[in-house]
Amino acid sequence: KCVTILCCNTAHLFLVFCLTGPTDAKITQTPNVVLKRGQSAQLTCRQTDNHNSMYWYQQQQGKGLQLIYYSVAVDNEEKDDIKEGFTVSRPKIDIFDLNISSVQTEHSAVYFCASSLDTVLQSHLLPLQKPPSFPLHSLRESSSSHLHI
Q1: CA–CA dist 132, 29 (Å, integer)
Q2: Using CA of residue 29, residue 14, residue 111, residue 88, what is the dihedral sign?
Q3: Helices (H), 43-131
Q4: Start and end of every Ig-like domain (predicted)?
Q5: 10: left (phi > 0), else alpha (psi -120 to 50), else beta?
Q6: Strand order from edge to edge, sheet including 27-29
Q7: What are the extents of the domains in the chain?
Q8: What span, in angstroms and rounded, lies between the C-alpha atoms of 138 and 117?
Q9: In the beta sheet, which residues pair with residue 18?
Q10: How far is the first Cα of the chain from the last one, in angstroms, to the nearest whole number?
Q11: Which pLDDT score is estimated for 30?
Q12: Separation of alpha carbons 101 and 35, rounded Å
C-alpha cells in the first residue's frame, strides 16, 4: 500500500495513499483523495506505539531519501533538507501531518513517514566528512506515500 499523487493533462491531481510493510504495521496514512493542481494536500501519519519521534522523508525519482521534517514531541517540529511548500503539525503523540500548500510538479516523489522511540543527534562521521544535518535514528515503523504530479 502507498500514497500516490498523480496529475494528468486535465489538471486533476489524483492522490492514492498506501502503506508498506507487514500487515501488523503500526503506522498508517491517509485514504485516497482527488485534487486539482495548485490545491493543498495533507498527508496524515498515525502511529500506535507512542513513539516520541516521527519523521517525514521525500524520495524523488532517482534520488536518495531527504528528511523534510521531524518531531521529537507534541507541538515540536523541526525543518530539515526540504522546506519550500511544506509544513507539518504534531497535535498529538500519535499524529504527524505533512501539508503541501500548493501541489506542484516538483512535489512528485515518494513520501515516507516513520517513527522511533528516541532520536540521537550525531555530531560527526569522520574528520573529513561534513556531519549530517538531520538526526540519525533507528526506525521501528515506516510507511510510504507516492506523489506524482
Answers
A1: 28
A2: negative
A3: none
A4: 22-113
A5: alpha
A6: 27-29, 41-47, 95-100, 86-92
A7: 4-118+133-147
A8: 8
A9: none
A10: 19
A11: 64
A12: 12
Q: Please list the ranges in the chain whose pLDDT falls under 50.
A: 1-25, 121-141
Q: 4-118+133-147: what CATH class? A: mainly beta
pLDDT of residue 27: 78
Gap between the Cα atoms of 44 and 28, Å rounded:
8
Q: How many CB atoms lie within 10 A of CB 97?
A: 18
pLDDT of 8 reads 37
Residues in the chain: 149
Strand partners, 43: 98
Amino acid 147: pLDDT: 59
Question: Cβ neighbours of residue 108 under 8 Å, at least 6 residues apart?
Answer: 5, 60, 61, 147, 148, 149
User: Residue 74 has which C-alpha cell?
Assistant: 507534541
The SS3 assignment for 105 reads helix
* pLDDT (0 to 100) of residue 32: 56
What integer pLDDT is reported at residue 127 of this predicted model?
A: 37
Which residue, chain included where needed, has cell 492522490? 15
If one counts every other C-beta atom within 10 angstroms of the C-beta of residue 11, the result is 9
CA distance 149 to 107: 7
Is this model's pTM higher than 0.70 or not? no
